[in-house]
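Appendix B.2, paired examples.
Example (i):
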Amino acid sequence: MEYLDIVDENNVLTGEKRLRSEVHLQGLWHRIVRVYLFKIIKNDIYILVHLRAKNKDTDPNCWDTRFGGHIKSCESIEEGIRNELIEEIGLELKRENLIQGEVGKGDNYPNREFSHNFYYRFDVEINTLKFNDGEVQEIKWMKVSDIFESMEKNPNIWSGGSTTFAQVLRVLKMKVRDTESAFKWIINILQKHNVPFQIKGGFASRLYGVKRELADIDISIPEDRFEELLSDVKDFIKYGPEQYLDEEWNIKLMTLKYKYQNIDIAGAFEKKNFDKVNKKWVATPSNFENSVYMDVYGFKVPVIAKGDLIAYKKLILRDVDIFDIEALSK
């Protein structure tokens, strides 16, 4: 018989334990663990997916992106991960490869559970794995983009949907993103070609002490210097270099992706932004001469002056800009 520890609606242990069958029958809150095995080849994330057994209670004979199960009574989270990986695929846990994710709350009465999500970097040949408990029929590596395509075209063959998987993947990308390496890489290239530049955007905001999640590294360079960088960055280009136009920017742009960190290289002097207050396009050339030099990851780099950054963000006025303006103005 399998007992589970009961938690309250805030994921706090109540001290009570109940049979697994009772937990599901009575809609009692409990904990599960989910582990996503992944590897990275170049800039692509691959997930180890498996075909669930034909006799599973839920989603039999469906593909699944995660391993795991219920955390048994008196079992720690790590013990639960270790035991589930051994039981399902014969994998001995190495703690240094384990990355903690978020905790999800699923209230699908009578199945009410807190899912403790983890990611496991796994680069070993999959033929070393063993299906010990009969819960897994088959395993294979799938590129993330192929998983999304399959989930959209054939949702009935998957346990779990694309929306949940997208949320899990968002966290994984944040965990494996190497901002420091990406910054050093692009600064070395700029300096190699003697290209003048200025750090801007959210990265500059963080350098001035704003505490928020970083989306990308924003760097402005002269419009006529893009071509000089191409030989070094061509394998990492996601967009451009070309003129980019949307509701907020009219700008020459090249977007790079290095170690899962996006880098936006933008034209510095021949650009326009839409002024949301006055409802018109205005020229917003960078002021390199007013740059503030800061030490960042071992480099002394030119950063947009705080006043210029605030003025720039007051034109665009997205939610993130309003947040930054308030923090920068303190």
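Example (ii):
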Amino acid sequence: MKAKHFIKKIELGKMKLFELKTQTKNQGSMDQVIEKINTVHSNKESLLSIPNKGLASIPDKVFDLTHITNLNLRNNDIKEIPKKISKLKNLKVIYLDGNKISKIDSSFFNLKEIEVLDVSANQIEYLPYEIGQLQKLKRLHFSANKLTEVPNTIGRLINLEHLYGHGNSIKKLPNEIGQLERLTQMNFFNNQLQQLDIDLSKLKHLQYVELGFNQLKTISETIGQMKNLTSLSLFDNQLTELPIALSNAKKLKKLNVSFNKLKKIELDLTKMLDLSELHIFNNKGSKIGSLDIKCLCKRTPIYSSHYCLLIDETQKEIVDHFKAEIENSKIGIVNMKEGRMPKGHYKQIPMELSNKYGLIDPRMEKFKQLRKQKTD
């Protein structure tokens, strides 16, 4: 009994020591935070950066810094944005990503000077319609939250250039996104989108579009009117055909339509003069229509180590007729039966895709073997 009592006392002592160390660490972090706030206040610095400090809330002293333009509070444990934040009228850039925020109060959108807003990796369930008041906003990131929709007032953000909303549960994008004429990058990867029926004809500056890991069945024909589109990812969707007008995207360099249900690959390379990287693997039973594979394989991909065309072993039509291009590393074959990427692959297939379907990367496999040999 005495031994048990003694052991229990030791365990309690360890717990108290751990709690004391935690309190000391937290107090040390808070002391650093207060010191930083005081320095920014006394020196009239424009940036307050206090990330990774374990903050459960925004310290009240922050709201006295009405002169700051940049605020970095990323990777803390902040649960809410108090109304007092509206006192920071000069804010242009605010990072709140990696916290535990569940909602954004409408008063936040009185900060009319904001140009960059990042609330990614939180627990936000909806974006208030007042977001349309941020007329100067250029970059908006709300990825990895719990959103199911995007308010149509987003169309009022006339200066928006970057729009990132991947990793949510959004089922439909509002038509008003088509009004964002200055948009250059759009990412709604890994959502639940079923169709893209937006009029995209006004998005003349849009270069990068990421819509992989959705449930898309149709794509608007107006996609061909995006004259500066260079990269389009539509992998792992439910597409049975590509819009005919896609061939009008003359500056498109990279197109990924792997893991779909395409019946025929129809692309006019006489119009798509810049297309140099095409992923069409795992479209079971698909046929090659008006795609000039020899022409494609004469082009130089964005990265010299990349293949011009990625197919799988079931696409016999290509495997049998383009052996020279396969041998010259212009065409790479993904072995879906064995779950292996082609040997020459280097960061060409998205990691999320290879992880989901368990595709083995021969390069990484070789690297692990070499590392193992060194440690043995």
